[in-house]
Design a protein that fits this description.
Helices cover 38% and strands 9% of the residues. The protein contains 14 helices and 10 strands. The longest helix is centred in the first third of the chain and has 22 residues, at 3-24. The termini are far apart. Bound molecules: zinc ion (ZN).
């Protein structure tokens, strides 16, 4: 009997024996998924890496947040003193707070971070999304970028707002990532040597129905507003291709595609990196993806070792443990990058928050580690 025949003929017998077992252990029958916290029984090396082997730049953090209702002041999410304590313990030379807003709020962020602690913090500016539907926007945005640069902003952050949330005030249609109104902005940051940290799209499962086949069922139930299935949302690939159009049209602008651009599809990311010399990636909040495909990831780091930067997406709040700023968060990144440990958690949480899988370290050699931890980001940032 081959496997297929066994599966078919055995199905009835199997289901009978399964129901007998279920009756014997009724407590198993009712265990809700969210209460299931299986512990690994593997006896494998566990390396504690309390400190990065080399000083690093965290290219992607959210110490500051949206200006909110007060356009003159930035919202501080993580206190600089708390950051510095963790940075000193973990060997973090510099944290880049990417969500630095613009105008007076940006100036406030710069006063509180890089101006108060030179060398330890950098701040990026953001597009004035609230003005994107104004007829004068294509001319205004470059002026705002120039002001931000004068004030000390070192790059431009583009949230997934572009492509998934930003709508034209007249038509209510989603604004395309490659909309020509942004062309002057991309050119201006390129001329000022300000790298663009750009988040486009999200995990593929966020674009699929939230059903029993969705591998991020639990994550999407915890954050239902992260689902982009249905309505008028473009697909993941369409968003990615729109970003490629932008990179193609602005070869003198450096784009750091956040979250490994498309961390579940490294062949596609490789194709993009090969085609666009002005493209880089960060690894923020995606070691859960990279670490579950360790052999593919290791080759990816080998091939693109000059174009990968370290980032975590570190921010305040406990709702997303894979990016909550704390010592333990960094230790997992170090373990992933520096060791060959097997099957460990990608986030400090009782249940893996993005999906029920564990990860494997890729044990990068020192020359690659140095580039990923610091040198690639330093070159992009001009520090
Ligand atoms: Zn982020």
């Amino acid at each position: 009997m081959n496997r297929r025949q066994w599966l078919t003929s055995g199905a009835a017998a199997l289901s009978a024996s399964a129901s007998a077992q279920t009756q014997q252990s009724s407590s198993v029958q009712g265990l809700p998924l969210e209460q299931y916290q299986p512990k690994s029984m593997l006896h494998v090396p566990e390396t504690h890496v309390p400190r990065a082997r080399f000083p690093l730049i965290d290219f992607h953090t959210h110490i500051t947040g949206a200006a909110g209702r007060d356009p003159d002041h930035i919202r501080i999410s993580l206190q600089p003193a708390d950051c510095l304590a963790v940075m000193d313990r973990k060997n973090i030379q510099t944290m880049v707070s990417v969500t630095g807003s613009y105008g007076n709020a940006l100036k406030d962020a710069i006063a509180k971070l890089p101006a108060a602690h030179p060398g330890r913090f950098l701040v990026f500016t953001e597009p004035a999304w609230d003005k994107a539907s104004d007829p004068g926007y294509p001319k205004l945005q470059p002026t705002l970028i120039e002001d931000a640069h004068k004030a000390g902003a070192r790059g431009l952050k583009v949230l997934k707002t572009l492509g998934l949330y930003l709508r034209d005030s007249g038509t209510n249609k989603l604004v395309r990532i490659d909309d020509p109104r942004f062309d002057p902005m991309w050119d201006t940051v390129g001329a000022l040597k300000m790298p663009v940290a750009i988040h486009v799209s999200d995990p593929e499962a966020f674009f699929l129905p939230i059903d029993r086949f969705n591998e991020r069922w639990e994550e999407l139930h915890a954050h239902p507003n992260w689902s982009f299935h249905g309505k008028d949302f473009p697909g993941d690939r369409e968003l990615q291709e729109a970003r490629r159009n932008v990179m193609r049209r602005h070869p003198n602008t450096q784009f750091v595609c956040l979250h490994v651009a498309d961390s579940e599809n490294l062949p596609y990311v490789s194709e993009c990196l090969d085609a666009h010399p002005n493209m880089y990636v960060d690894i923020a909040a995606r070691i859960g993806e990279l670490g579950r495909q360790p052999r593919m990831s290791r080759k990816f780091f080998d091939k693109y070792q000059d174009r990968i930067v370290f980032g975590t997406d570190a921010s305040a709040g406990a709702g997303t443990p894979q990016q909550t700023f704390c010592d333990a968060l960094y230790e997992i990144y170090f373990r992933f990058l520096e060791t060959e440990d097997e099957y460990f958690d990608y986030a400090p949480a009782p249940v893996p928050p993005q999906g029920r899988w564990r990860i494997y370290g890729i044990g990068l050699p020192e020359p690659i580690l140095r580039k990923v931890y610091r040198d690639n980001a330093a070159r992009l940032l001009g520090v």
